[in-house]
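User: quick one, sequence for these C-alpha cells?
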C-alpha cells in the first residue's frame, strides 16, 4: 500500500520560500573588504538571487553544472548559495587558501566553466588561468566601477551581470536527490576529493543542525559564522539561519583578529558564533588583555579541531559557553554536538572538565560507531577506542566522479563513545602516536599543556624511535608576553598525563604550520622535525629555538 502523504521534494528552495514568508525583514549584515558594512534583508537577498538565476540561464550554464566560487562570507556569496542550487546547478565552493596547484586540480576536475570570485582573488586566478582552458566566465563579486585592472579576459562584475535581469524566476521543481553543492576536502594526502551534496541531504542537515541539542538557533539569535562559506557550507548556517529567522552577520575576510571580532560582536549584538579553536583563542586573548567584553555573546561553537579545556574555561570566565561540535566535509559537516546541559554544573570538577571537552552526541539522523582495525564493532563503554564510522542521509557514500559505495563511512578519526552516547575524539588515525604497541593521544597532551599560562599554541607529533616505534614530541609556541623553559612545560605535564605519555622532548617554536582550513599541519611538522635526536632520558628536554 502506498502512503497518503504529499510527496513534496526536500529542496533548498523550500528554505528560501519559508524565509521569505517568515523572516523577510530580518537583516543580513556583511562586512566588506573596505571595512564598510552592507545591510539588507532576507527578502532583498532572495530578490537578487532570482536576478542571478536569470543571469545563469542567459549564460547557458547547464543543469547540474558546478558553478565555482572563491569568496569570503558576504551577501553576494549568500545569494550564490541559493540561486545556484535552486536553479538546478551545483554551488561549488573552493577554498582560496589551498595551494594554487590544488585549486587548478579542483577546477579542472569539476570542469568549471564559470567562477565567481572576490576581487582579492583575481591575482590568484591570473596566475593559474593559463592552465584552465575550460574556464569561460569570470565574474568578480563587486560593483561595475570596482572591477579590478586585470590581465584576465572578459572580466565582468557581479552587479553588471545581474543588473538587467528581472527579479522574478520560477524555481524548478527539482527531485530532492539532485546535486546541490560540491566541496573538496583539502587532501593532506593525495589530490583533493569532491563531496557532492544533494538538496535532500542539505535540507535534512539544516533541520538537524537547528535542533535544541545542536545549535538550537531561533529568531532571537544573531549568528556570526566565522567559519568560511568556502569550506563545508559554513557548517550549514547560511540555510539554518534562514529557516530560524536569525539575523545573520557575515564577517567577510575581517574576522581574523580578536579586536575586530570584539567590535563586530558588540556592534551587531551577536548571540551565537561559529569558528575553529584558533579564532576563539584570538578572541579570548584580546578580551583578557584589553578588559573589553562581549556581553551579547552567550554561546559559541568550536569545531574543526579539538578544543582545549583551558580555552573553554577562559571563554566561560568571559560569560561565553563554548560548545564543541564534530564533523567533516564528508558529513556535511555536522556529526555530533556537545550542547551544554544543566547537569554538567553538578559534576565533580574532574568529570566536568572532561565532559565539556567531549565532541558531544551524534545529532539525530547521524549514526556513529567505533570499530576495531578488522571492522568489529566495539562497545560504547567510554573505554574502548576504535575507528569512528558514520552513516546517515548527509554522509558521503563516494567522491565526485567516482562510484557510490555501500556501508559505513570511515571518518579517519579514532574515538571512544560512552554509554550516554558522548563521543571523545582521541586522535586522527594518522596522528595517533604508536608507542610500544599502545596508542598515545596527541590531542590529550595538547589539551593538557594548553592550560599552562605561557602557552599560545601547542602540537604533539609522533616521530620514529629506535626502541618504542614512535615517541611524542611537543612543539610549543609561547605567548609573546611570557618566557618559559621546555623543562618547565614537561614538568607541568607530569601530573596531567600518564607517565609513559610524557613527551620525550619539548621544543619552543615561533609558529606552527597550518593547513588551508586553519588546523595545525602535523604532516608538515613531522617533516620539519624528522631528523630529531631523542635525548637519553625520557624526560630530558631541549630548547631548539
Ligand atoms: P579537511 O580539513 O581535511 O578538509 P575537514 O574540515 O572535513 O577536513 O575536517 C574534518 C576533521 O577535523 C575530522 O575528521 C576531525 O579529525 C577534525 N575535527 C573536527 N571536529 C573536531 C573536534 N571537535 N575534535 C577533534 N577533531 C575534530
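Assistant:
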Amino acid at each position: 500500500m502506498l502512503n497518503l502523504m504529499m510527496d513534496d521534494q526536500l529542496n533548498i528552495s523550500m528554505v528560501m520560500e519559508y524565509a521569505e514568508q517568515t523572516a523577510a525583514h530580518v537583516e543580513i549584515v556583511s562586512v566588506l573588504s573596505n571595512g564598510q558594512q552592507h545591510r539588507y534583508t532576507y527578502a532583498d537577498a532572495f530578490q537578487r538571487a532570482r536576478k542571478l538565476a536569470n543571469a545563469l540561464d542567459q549564460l547557458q550554464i547547464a543543469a547540474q553544472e558546478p558553478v565555482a566560487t572563491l569568496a569570503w562570507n558576504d551577501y553576494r556569496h549568500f545569494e550564490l548559495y541559493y540561486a545556484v542550487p535552486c536553479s538546478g546547478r551545483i554551488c561549488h565552493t573552493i577554498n582560496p587558501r589551498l595551494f594554487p596547484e590544488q585549486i587548478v586540480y579542483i577546477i579542472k576536475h569539476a570542469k568549471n566553466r564559470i567562477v565567481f570570485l572576490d576581487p582579492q582573488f583575481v591575482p590568484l586566478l591570473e596566475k593559474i588561468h593559463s592552465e584552465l582552458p575550460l574556464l569561460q566566465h569570470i565574474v568578480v563579486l563587486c560593483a561595475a566601477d570596482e572591477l579590478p585592472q586585470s590581465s584576465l579576459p572578459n572580466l565582468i562584475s557581479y552587479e553588471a551581470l545581474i543588473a538587467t535581469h528581472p527579479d522574478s524566476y520560477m524555481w524548478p521543481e527539482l527531485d530532492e536527490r539532485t546535486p546541490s553543492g560540491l566541496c573538496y576536502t583539502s587532501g593532506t594526502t593525495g589530490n583533493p576529493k569532491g563531496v557532492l551534496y544533494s538538496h535532500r541531504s542539505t535540507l535534512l542537515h539544516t533541520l538537524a543542525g537547528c535542533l535544541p541539542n545542536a545549535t538550537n538557533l531561533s529568531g532571537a539569535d544573531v549568528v556570526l559564522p566565522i567559519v568560511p562559506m568556502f569550506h563545508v557550507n559554513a557548517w550549514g548556517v547560511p540555510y539554518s539561519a534562514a529557516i530560524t529567522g536569525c539575523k545573520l552577520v557575515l564577517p567577510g575576510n575581517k574576522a581574523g583578529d580578536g579586536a575586530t571580532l570584539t567590535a563586530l560582536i558588540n556592534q551587531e549584538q551577536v548571540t551565537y558564533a561559529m569558528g575553529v579553536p584558533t579564532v576563539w583563542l584570538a578572541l579570548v586573548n584580546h578580551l583578557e588583555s584589553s578588559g573589553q567584553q562581549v556581553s551579547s555573546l552567550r554561546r559559541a561553537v568550536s569545531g574543526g579541531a579539538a578544543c582545549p579545556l583551558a580555552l573553554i574555561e577562559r571563554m566561560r570566565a568571559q560569560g561565553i559557553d563554548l560548545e564543541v561540535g564534530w564533523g567533516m566535509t564528508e558529513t556535511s559537516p555536522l556529526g555530533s554536538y556537545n550542547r551544554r546541559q544543566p547537569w554538567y554544573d553538578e559534576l565533580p570538577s574532574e568529570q566536568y572538565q572532561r565532559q565539556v571537552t567531549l565532541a558531544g552526541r551524534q545529532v539525530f539522523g547521524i549514526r556513529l560507531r567505533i570499530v576495531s582495525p578488522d571492522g568489529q564493532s566495539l562497545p560504547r563503554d567510554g573505554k574502548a577506542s576504535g575507528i569512528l564510522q558514520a552513516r546517515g542521509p548527509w554522509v558521503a557514500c563516494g567522491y565526485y566522479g567516482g562510484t557510490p559505495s555501500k556501508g559505513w563511512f570511515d571518518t579517519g578519526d579514532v574515538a571512544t563513545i560512552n554509554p550516554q552516547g558522548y563521543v571523545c575524539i582521541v586522535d586522527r588515525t594518522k596522528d595517533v602516536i604508536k608507542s610500544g604497541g599502545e596508542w598515545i593521544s596527541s590531542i590529550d597532551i595538547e589539551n593538557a599543556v594548553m592550560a599552562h599560562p605561557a602557552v599560545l599554541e601547542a602540537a604533539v607529533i609522533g616521530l620514529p624511535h629506535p626502541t618504542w616505534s614512535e615517541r611524542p614530541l611537543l612543539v610549543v609556541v609561547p605567548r609573546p608576553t611570557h618566557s618559559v623553559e621546555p623543562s618547565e612545560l614537561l614538568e607541568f605535564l607530569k601530573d596531567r598525563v600518564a607517565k609513559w605519555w610524557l613527551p620525550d622532548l619539548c621544543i619552543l617554536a615561533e609558529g606552527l604550520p597550518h593547513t588551508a582550513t586553519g588546523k595545525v599541519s602535523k604532516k608538515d611538522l613531522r617533516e620539519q622535525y624528522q631528523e630529531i635526536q631523542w635525548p637519553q632520558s625520557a624526560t630530558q628536554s631541549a630548547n631548539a629555538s
